């Protein structure tokens, strides 16, 4: 009875909190929080929260499914559903995401019992007011080719819940009258069915009307048979890569939309050096090749649009582990291209191995996705962190808090060759951290507004056109280097992307400087907007080259950099050349709002305003991974078992510009400190400055000053 009462209490609290999540999201900040040269969120944007957003996830967890679950509705399975739903509630998870029946059309012969199982899960979760998001990959079927591929699949992809067709049966496999063989992509090399070697999958073509019809009808069936609250339709890209697709539908579309014919495979003027790995194929000097990549992106975007139209107002998201590198062109993974149809934006964050503690390089991807979500209408951003053990789950949660996004915790033991004997369920891995958050620091990430001191430009035209500088580095490498230096110097930043860069009014709406590094591809509209911004007194740091090509990748007769001028324009070295940010600070060209003067430099600080009160998040950049003695992942990296820290002097001192960071009474809290609160000493030096003394003893991963 006591447990039932507690679960009912949590359900009531969760219901109340979800109802009011959007309130105050776009409220104006008090004037004290805004100063010249700083901002808290960028330009105002319409919010989709409220009536247009049915719910906003905060603490997500993977609802792992196994092959045994197809035995639904046996009592063993239904009892397991009930136990696990109760455990999710105890772990304060507000949103569950189905995980396991991934390569969905492999289960076409079993959709009846699969949907019955999922409907039962949804019903049980809804008793605790836990939302349930469907998660599956729509555009593949597992088809290992040969014994070696068969064994590799069973070693590395166990988390897909493997149940694929025998080769002879596969020739007849179908759904809604569409033979799978008939809707596959076509390999441009030999006319065979498209094959994703990294996942042992045959791939369906995003342009094939038979596939689109099949997927639409399946979604309609799902809507009727399972009460999902949202959808993650995964892998909206092309894992077979540049080898596909040569089907008649793709050839017709390329001719109709772009006026081109796909050249024969091996034509170096189009394909480049195909002796290189597939991700490096293609001659970006050829406009026909660039158009082909754009057509492939268009195909995926149209498919996503169809999915959104089919599910209606229910939120939609897809996988996106990366947004920046040129190599993503090869698999048509382009989040910016499909963003207009998405409601949640999800980033796969840290994995299960020891490399997870080196998180700074992920900061750029996290903030890039936040900006994409912001321009979509300030919709939720979600960081997905994989783990085997509790310490990894805590690390992922800490990063989500540092970034100001929702946390999706997920165990991943099923991707190892065998499950560790001491592995734990996902809800057990995240329970203690979630419970602590609810009790001591229930911070609503949606109402938080980042303190922004500089706008870092990531211009997607450079990626789309495969542009690289004479040093061989692409624009994204430069951007990521700036991001890492900002983190190391506790500088608040946000991303500014291609569309906003062409909007002079948006550029002039904020007093924070722009950073423009190695932007070879620049449109006339972007150049004019930047010039207007500079003419109005705006400040920018520019590292050449700039504007050597237009937005379509065509080379200009003269770089636009020669025409760019203004008192606020400062020429700087590229970020990959060394500590450029520190040089700017020493020269007095940039003054951070927070400057550390004592204590270990391993702690990064991020400031976020919550309804007029500043909260400071501390994340350790100098963690030490404690590896598992025997267990390794598929890349032969040891699994993360525990975390230590190199940080020793945790008595930190900061000089703070209180015009940008208005301070009120603060206490340090952390799950590592349990219920202890450590007061922060604030020494007022003048009207506009203060010294901040922070003691992080006993903390090795994350803390918050609130």
Automatic annotation (TrEMBL):
It comes from Chitinophaga niabensis. This is Beta-galactosidase trimerisation domain-containing protein.
């Amino acid at each position: 009875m006591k447990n039932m009462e507690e679960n009912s209490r949590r359900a009531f609290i969760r219901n109340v909190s979800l109802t009011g999540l959007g309130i105050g999201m776009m409220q104006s900040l008090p004037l004290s929080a805004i100063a010249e040269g700083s901002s808290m969120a960028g330009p105002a944007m319409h919010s989709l929260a409220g009536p247009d957003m049915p719910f906003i996830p905060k603490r997500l967890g993977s609802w792992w499914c196994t092959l045994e679950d197809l035995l639904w509705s046996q009592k063993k399975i239904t009892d397991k559903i009930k136990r696990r739903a109760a455990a999710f509630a105890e772990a304060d998870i507000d949103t569950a995401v189905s995980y396991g029946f991934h390569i969905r059309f492999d289960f076409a012969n079993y959709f009846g019992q699969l949907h019955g199982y999922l409907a039962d899960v949804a019903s049980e979760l809804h008793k605790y007011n836990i939302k349930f998001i469907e998660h599956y990959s729509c555009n593949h079927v597992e088809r290992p080719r040969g014994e070696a591929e068969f064994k590799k699949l069973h070693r590395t992809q166990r988390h897909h819940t493997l149940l694929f067709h025998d080769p002879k049966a596969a020739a007849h496999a179908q759904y809604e009258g569409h033979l799978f063989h008939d809707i596959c992509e076509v390999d441009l090399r030999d006319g065979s069915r498209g094959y994703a070697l990294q996942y042992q999958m045959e791939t369906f073509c995003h342009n094939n009307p038979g596939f689109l019809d099949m997927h639409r009808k399946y979604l309609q069936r799902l809507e009727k048979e399972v009460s999902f609250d949202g959808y993650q339709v995964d892998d909206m890209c092309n894992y077979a890569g540049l080898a596909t697709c040569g089907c008649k539908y793709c050839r017709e579309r390329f001719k109709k939309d772009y006026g081109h014919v796909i050249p024969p495979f091996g034509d170096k003027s189009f394909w480049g050096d195909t002796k290189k790995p597939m991700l490096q194929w293609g001659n970006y000097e050829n406009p026909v090749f660039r158009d082909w990549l754009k057509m492939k992106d268009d195909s995926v975007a149209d498919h996503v649009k169809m999915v959104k139209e089919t599910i209606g107002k229910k939120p939609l998201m897809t996988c996106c582990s990366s947004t920046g590198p040129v190599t993503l062109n090869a698999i048509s993974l382009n989040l910016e291209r499909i963003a207009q149809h998405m409601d949640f934006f999800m980033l796969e964050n840290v994995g299960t191995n020891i490399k997870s503690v080196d998180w700074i390089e992920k900061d750029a991807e996290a903030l890039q996705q936040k900006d994409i979500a912001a321009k979509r209408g300030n919709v939720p951003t979600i960081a997905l962190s994989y783990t085997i053990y509790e310490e990894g789950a805590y690390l992922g949660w800490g990063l989500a808090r540092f970034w100001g996004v929702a946390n999706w915790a997920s165990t991943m033991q099923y991707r190892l060759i065998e499950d560790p004997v001491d592995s734990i369920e996902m809800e057990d891995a995240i329970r203690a951290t979630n419970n602590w958050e609810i009790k001591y620091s229930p911070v609503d990430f949606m109402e938080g507004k980042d303190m922004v001191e500089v706008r870092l430009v990531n211009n997607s035209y450079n990626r789309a056109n495969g542009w690289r500088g004479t040093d061989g580095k692409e624009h994204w490498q430069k951007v990521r280097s700036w991001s890492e230096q900002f983190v190391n110097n506790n500088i608040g930043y946000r991303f500014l992307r291609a569309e906003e860069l062409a909007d002079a009014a948006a550029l002039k709406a904020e007093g924070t400087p722009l950073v423009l590094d190695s932007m070879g591809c620049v449109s006339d509209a972007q150049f004019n907007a930047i010039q207007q911004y500079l003419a109005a007194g705006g400040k920018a740091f520019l590292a050449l080259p700039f504007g050597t090509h237009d937005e379509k990748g065509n080379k200009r007769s003269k770089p636009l950099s020669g025409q760019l001028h203004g008192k606020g324009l400062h020429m700087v070295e590229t970020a990959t050349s060394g500590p450029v940010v520190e040089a700017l600070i020493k020269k007095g060209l940039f003054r951070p709002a927070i400057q550390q003067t004592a204590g270990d430099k391993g702690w990064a600080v991020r400031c976020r305003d919550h309804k007029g009160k500043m909260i400071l998040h501390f994340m350790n950049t100098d963690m030490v991974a404690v590896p598992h003695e025997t267990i390794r992942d598929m890349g032969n990296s040891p699994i993360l078992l525990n975390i230590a820290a190199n940080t020793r002097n945790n008595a930190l001192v900061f000089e703070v510009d209180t015009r940008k960071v208005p301070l009120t009474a603060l206490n340090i809290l952390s799950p590592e400190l349990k219920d202890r609160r450590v007061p922060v000493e604030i020494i007022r030096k003048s009207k506009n400055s203060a010294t901040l003394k922070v003691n992080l003893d006993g903390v090795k991963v994350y803390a918050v000053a609130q």
